[in-house]
Design a protein that fits this description.
Blueprint (H helix, E strand, L loop, with lengths): L2 H13 L11 H16 L8 E9 L7 E6 L10 E2 L4 E8 L7 H21 L5 E9 L10 H9 L4 E7 L16 H10 L2
Parallel strand pairs: 1-3, 4-5, 5-6
Antiparallel strand pairs: 1-2, 2-4
Helix pairs in contact: 1-2, 3-4
Length: about 200
């Protein structure tokens, strides 16, 4: 399945959701939905000696960070808490549906927090070969005075992780045929996972 297949499945499922009442959001569910669909596809590209685990999960010694997923050396028993030993971690994921957005300060703070978590994980997990940030879409500025979300994401996160932005934003209210994939991002993500 290519990114357009992931997007199509995501949007079809999302269309069936009820609209949240005023002041409420279904972002938690839509994030979970995207991660589930994404990980079903990514699991086909992980070397057989490893396991792709969808979060939430934690790493012993970094319990204050909730990870959206990981590639691990071992599988936990079914009834266990999703707490992995650092030496079992091969890759860690941060997954977003709509990227990081808000005002300039909020965006910078959120991205710096993600970068710091990835740096801490690389130090703490001696077998961690890759940290990966995946977002279904990233906002592109409409005006010159807008926050340059995509560029800010690249500037802050690229030094510490692989960034995979699947589509230019917005994709929610368009037919899948009009969605603009970000060239080369999916291929780079798959090649990185296959090389683990």
């Amino acid at each position: 399945m290519q990114p357009t297949g992931i997007l199509s499945r995501f949007l079809k499922t999302k269309e069936r959701l009820d609209r949240p009442p005023p002041g409420k959001s279904n972002y938690g569910y839509t994030g979970h939905l995207f991660a589930t669909i994404l990980f079903e596809e990514l699991g086909r590209h992980i070397p057989r000696r490893y396991t792709l685990v969808r979060g939430p999960l934690w790493v012993h010694g970094l319990e204050w960070v909730e990870w959206d997923g990981a590639v691990t050396k071992s599988v936990l028993p079914d009834n266990s808490v999703a707490l992995y030993e650092p030496e079992d971690i091969i890759a860690l994921f941060e997954i977003k549906t709509r990227g990081v957005y808000g005002g300039e300060k909020e965006v910078t703070k959120a991205l710096n927090n993600i970068a710091e978590n990835f740096r801490d994980a690389r130090k703490h997990c001696q077998n961690c070969r890759q940290c990966i940030y995946v977002t279904l879409q990233e906002r592109k500025p409409k005006r010159e005075t807008s926050v340059p979300y995509y560029q800010r994401t690249k500037d802050i996160l690229e030094p510490v992780c692989l960034i995979a932005v699947l589509f230019e934003s917005p994709v929610d209210n368009k037919p899948v045929s009009q969605a603009k994939p970000c060239p080369g991002e999916w291929k780079r993500l798959i090649e990185t996972l296959q090389a683990l």
